[in-house]
């Protein structure tokens, strides 16, 4: 306890006058010098690593239109369930797609609108070759990995004897009007299917607008 | 490909797996897209894809990747659509089930918000049972053990008892809606995989698993039997019991190809003077590594991440940042932290063993000692238990027991290593129940049970209050644990009522010509070094309604209390008013015909009576009668004032008349007078109080004033004058009451009472037959004032309360009872006066 200034410590009176302090004050043992070796660090050269994270964050448009994006996800998922419809009962397939989509997205999307979209897509004569592929193999949500190890996912890939068709579904707010993604897919498919002709399309689902990417 | 392969612990798993894929599929011309790869999560596929790109040096179609969750879903979705329930919805279903059929689990947490944390625990528990496919038989064994009573929270024991039924109902309820939880998906996956050939895949490779839940084991086993599954582990079963177990489950050896000699890692320690120099050193070391991308940097402190990234970004290497929970946030760390905290915070409750430093005991300060604080219900311990307790203490070589002001006992000087033995020893003796010095640890005097001063049976009330507290779950509410309840059976303070936060002392009132046990309720008492206060009286209500008023008051306290105020602040802001409001609700006593219960004290089989009770009762009974009349006069005066605002002249008139009526009779009991009607009361008032100079002479016209009010049709101005008159009258009477001495004397000049005195052969006779308690005592006391010391009088008393009460009261006043003789249904008592009371 700190002693008040000017006051006497009462404990001192307990020590007889003839009792004197023997020896001398101890001092703490000195620590041996560390055997470690000192390193001199070279100056740092910082680079902007934040830029490297740009792909990690969603851009503003993705945040702003999250509802439309959600709707787009639902449509994409429903279409991923529709494989090759050739020689199949379209009505039954539509119902299957809806049922499975409802299970996956139980939060209550507008499934009647989805049904309309699916029916309209499947009955559009311009799009018949993409959904009803006699003699072709249809892949949906097909993953492909580029030489850097990055994954790309093609919405619909149709592989025929002598050609490959890529369809990228677009919903209202998605950008990439020039089809840069599709161009990359085309390049990838050319590598994977050498000798086959590769065509790529952007299909805007809302307006059922089809645009070939060259 | 072998069905089970295990890589060495020092192997790079991703590269090893890529080797396998290359050897088994790519080199044989099997497209990778025909292979399913299942990892525990999603992240490893990114590394595998990158490694495959390096090997293949170009684009490729990758294997189909699944996390285990995805794969389980895929297995079931191949047979039927899968709709999963969200965790919050699942907890709500559990809440509903608990409400409907397992109410014990609610433990008074009736709202969903209150029950949610517990519902989440139950949900997690069910999920775990499902993942491990714990069947009902196994659960039943756990339940049987639960009945023995683990030393666990009551909720946990309840849950264990109910688990099988609750789980079944939960599953049934979800199945009805076609919903799955994650646990249900896992539990059913093997069954759905039964005849699933997975022909679209050449192989399904389960990679990098270590521990597998029972449901996962079954699923993988099913695929192994079907010939589709391949398993890639890391580690050897000879080293890892978990892998040895899996090896048994799958009937396949899990062994690494070649037991390579393990090279122990070399350890170097570097020391930097701050975080920045530390990451600078790390950067220099990374430069020296041949494959820095194979380096794993583990940061103990997440704050170091940004400086680290800034340092190593200049090296041009790719890095993958994985932010997990710091060690301090891990479940195991938290568990230990909670256990330690719980141990340290165990206050001296019945079961509690706490260090002195935490419970503020000053008897011994050595930090290495603890003491056991044993809560004794109502302060009782049987001789048998006490003997056994002494035996326990002898065995432990402890020689001391202390008693506390809470009627509990403390065993001091317990060393930490002895705590367990003491605890279990006390538990065996049944001395571990409830929390000492909390709201459930009620202090009570013996009351009318054994004390001849006690009016009410305070022990009975204490038991009733404790039962109510447990029923309402108040003992589990943190805000209430700091409160205390103290009860005295009479105005004497043996039950410590003046210093209780909530306290009571016993009294009686007459209703329906019978005595009714009543209590005065007090609030806000405290004892502290610089902060002491006597509890304030705030209600006077029948004993039977005490648990009700306490219940209502505590509920109000819980809901109205501000987070930053203590009990005393709450009382000032709201509590006293709340108690006054509740008092109005409970102050009325029903007639004997309406509800006899009110005429029986707590814990008593016979009707409440003041028979045999000493002067504590007689005095208190007189005071109660005076106070009740003064209080009633006060209520009417207040009501009259309020009616002035609404100008309800008729009601003002009525209330003012009541003020005069109650006021005039209020103090007459001190003279042994019991007026039969208002007129008599007014007459006695003038004779005794006005003429006796106890109140001002101005009140000599009280009869005329009362007459005027009784006639009615008075104007507002006149009523205002009469209001002032009544106001002053009541004030004077209250002052007189306040200054009354213990002999019920207001002024020195007290005229002798008008009692019938008969000459007898031996003594003057005071006939008090037909006079009820406590008036008979008062009349005897007043009469004795005019008797000379040494003289003997004879008092005639009825059977029952009078003969049991009055002689004892007089004896306690200091007079001598010479003889009690029964004569023709009444008693003659010879009293010799020894003192002026």
Tell me the total number of β-strands of chain A.
5
Shape of chain A: elongated
Number of strands of chain B: 19
Helix content of chain B: 40-55%
Low-confidence stretches of chain B: 347-364, 748-762
- The radius of gyration computed from the alpha-carbon positions of chain A, rounded to a whole number of angstroms, is 36 Å
Find the biggest chain interface.
A-B, 29 and 31 residues
What oligomeric state do the depicted chains represent? heterodimer
Round the mean pLDDT of chain B to the nearest integer and report it.
Answer: 83
- Strand arrangement within the widest β-sheet of chain A reads 1-2-3-4-5
Shape of chain B: elongated
Largest sheet of chain B: 5 strands, parallel
Distance between the termini of chain A: 87 Å
Count of DSSP-assigned helices of chain A: 6
Distance between the termini of chain B: 112 Å
| Helix/strand structural class of chain B | alpha/beta
The Cα radius of gyration of chain B reads 42 Å
Largest sheet of chain A: 5 strands, mixed
Strand content of chain B: 5-15%
Mean residue pLDDT of chain A: 79
Number of helices of chain B: 27
């Amino acid at each position: 306890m700190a002693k008040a200034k000017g006051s006497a410590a009462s404990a001192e009176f307990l020590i007889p006058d003839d009792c004197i302090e023997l020896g001398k004050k101890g001092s703490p043992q000195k620590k041996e010098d560390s055997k470690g070796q000192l390193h001199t660090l070279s100056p740092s050269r910082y680079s902007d690593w934040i830029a490297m994270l740009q792909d990690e964050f969603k851009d503003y448009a993705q945040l702003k239109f999250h509802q439309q994006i959600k709707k787009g996800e639902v449509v994409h998922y429903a279409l991923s369930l529709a494989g090759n419809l050739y020689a199949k009962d379209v009505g039954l397939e539509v119902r299957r797609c809806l049922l499975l989509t409802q299970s996956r997205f139980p939060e209550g999307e507008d499934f009647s609108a989805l049904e309309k979209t699916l029916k309209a897509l499947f009955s559009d004569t311009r799009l018949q070759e993409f959904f009803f592929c006699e003699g072709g193999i249809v892949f949906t949500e097909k993953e492909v990995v580029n030489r850097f190890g990055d994954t790309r996912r093609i919405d619909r890939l149709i592989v025929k004897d002598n050609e490959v068709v890529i369809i990228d579904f677009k919903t209202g707010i998605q950008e990439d009007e020039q089809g840069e993604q599709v161009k990359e897919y085309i390049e990838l498919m050319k590598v994977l299917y050498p000798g086959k002709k590769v065509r790529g399309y952007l299909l805007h689902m809302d307006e059922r607008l089809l645009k070939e990417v060259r | 490909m072998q069905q089970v392969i295990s890589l060495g612990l020092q192997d790079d798993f991703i590269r090893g797996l890529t080797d396998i894929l290359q050897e088994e599929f790519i080199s044989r011309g099997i497209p990778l897209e025909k292979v399913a790869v299942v990892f525990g999560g999603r992240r490893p596929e990114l590394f595998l894809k990158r490694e495959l790109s390096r090997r293949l040096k170009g684009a490729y179609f990758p294997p189909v990747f699944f996390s285990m969750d995805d794969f389980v879903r895929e297995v079931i979705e191949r047979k039927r659509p899968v709709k999963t329930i969200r965790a919050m919805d699942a907890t709500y279903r559990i809440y509903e089930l608990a409400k409907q059929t397992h109410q014990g689990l609610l433990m008074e947490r009736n709202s969903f918000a209150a029950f949610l944390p517990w519902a989440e625990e139950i949900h997690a528990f069910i999920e775990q049972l499902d993942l491990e496919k714990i069947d009902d038989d196994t659960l039943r064994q756990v339940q049987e053990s639960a009945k023995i009573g683990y030393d666990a929270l009551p909720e946990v024991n309840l849950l264990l008892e109910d688990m099988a039924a609750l789980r079944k109902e939960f599953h049934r309820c979800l199945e009805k809606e076609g919903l799955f939880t994650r646990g249900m998906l896992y539990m059913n996956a093997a069954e759905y995989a039964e005849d699933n050939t997975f022909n679209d895949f050449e192989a399904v490779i389960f990679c990098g698993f270590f521990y597998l839940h029972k449901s996962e084991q079954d699923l993988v086993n099913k695929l192994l039997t079907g010939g589709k599954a391949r398993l890639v582990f890391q580690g050897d079963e000879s080293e890892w019991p978990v892998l040895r177990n899996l090896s048994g489950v799958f009937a396949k050896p899990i062994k690494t190809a070649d037991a390579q000699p393990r090279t122990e890692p070399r350890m170097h320690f570097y020391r930097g003077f701050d975080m920045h120099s530390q990451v600078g050193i790390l950067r220099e070391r990374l430069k020296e590594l041949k494959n820095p991308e194979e380096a794993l940097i583990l940061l103990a402190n997440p704050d170091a991440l940004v400086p680290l990234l800034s340092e190593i970004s200049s090296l041009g290497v790719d890095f993958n940042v994985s932010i997990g929970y710091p060690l301090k946030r891990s479940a195991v760390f938290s568990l230990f932290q909670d256990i330690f905290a719980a141990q340290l915070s165990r206050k001296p409750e019945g079961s509690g063993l706490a260090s002195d430093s935490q419970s503020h005991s000053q008897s011994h300060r050595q930090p290495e000692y603890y003491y056991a604080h044993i809560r004794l219900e109502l302060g009782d311990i049987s001789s048998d238990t006490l003997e056994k307790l002494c035996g326990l203490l002898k065995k432990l070589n402890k020689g001391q027991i202390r008693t506390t002001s809470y009627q509990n006992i403390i065993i001091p000087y317990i060393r930490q290593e002895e705590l367990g033995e003491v605890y279990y020893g006390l538990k065996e003796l049944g001395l571990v129940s409830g929390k000492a010095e909390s709201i459930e640890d009620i202090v009570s005097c013996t009351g009318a049970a054994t004390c001849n001063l006690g009016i009410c049976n305070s022990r009975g009330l204490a038991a009733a209050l404790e039962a109510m507290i447990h029923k309402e779950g108040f003992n589990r509410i943190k805000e209430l644990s700091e409160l205390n309840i103290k009860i005295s059976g009479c105005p004497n303070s043996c039950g410590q009522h003046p210093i209780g936060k909530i306290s009571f002392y016993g009294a009686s009132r007459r209703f329906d010509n019978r005595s009714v046990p009543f209590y005065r309720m007090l609030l806000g008492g405290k004892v502290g070094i610089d902060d002491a206060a006597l509890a304030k009286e705030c209600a006077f209500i029948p004993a039977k309604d005490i648990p009700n008023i306490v219940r209502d008051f505590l509920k109000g306290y819980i809901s109205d209390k501000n987070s930053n105020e203590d009990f005393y602040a709450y009382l000032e802001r709201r509590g006293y008013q709340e108690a006054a409001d509740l008092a109005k609700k409970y102050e009325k006593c029903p007639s004997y015909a309406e509800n006899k219960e009110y005429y029986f004290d707590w814990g008593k089989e016979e009707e409440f009576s003041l028979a045999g009770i000493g002067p504590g009762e007689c005095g208190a009974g007189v005071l109660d009668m005076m106070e009740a009349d003064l209080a009633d006069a006060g209520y009417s005066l207040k009501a009259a004032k309020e009616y002035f605002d609404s100008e309800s002249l008729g009601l003002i008139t009525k209330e003012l008349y009541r003020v005069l009526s109650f006021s005039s009779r209020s103090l007459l009991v001190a003279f042994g007078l019991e007026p039969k009607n208002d007129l008599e009361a007014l007459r006695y008032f003038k004779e005794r109080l006005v003429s006796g100079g106890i109140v001002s002479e101005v009140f000599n016209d009280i009869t005329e004033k009362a007459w005027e009010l009784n006639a009615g049709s008075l104007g507002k101005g006149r009523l205002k004058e009469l209001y002032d008159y009544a106001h002053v009258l009541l004030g004077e009477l209250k002052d007189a009451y306040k200054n009354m001495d213990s002999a019920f004397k207001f002024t020195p000049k007290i005229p002798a009472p008008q009692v019938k005195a008969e000459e007898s052969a031996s003594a003057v006779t005071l006939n008090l037959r037909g006079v009820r308690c406590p008036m008979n005592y008062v009349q005897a006391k007043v009469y004795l004032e005019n008797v000379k010391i040494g003289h003997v009088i004879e008092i005639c008393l009825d059977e029952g309360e009078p003969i049991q009460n009055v002689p004892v009261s007089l004896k306690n006043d200091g007079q001598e009872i010479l003889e009690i003789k029964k004569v023709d249904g009444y008693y003659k008592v010879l009293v010799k006066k020894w003192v002026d009371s």
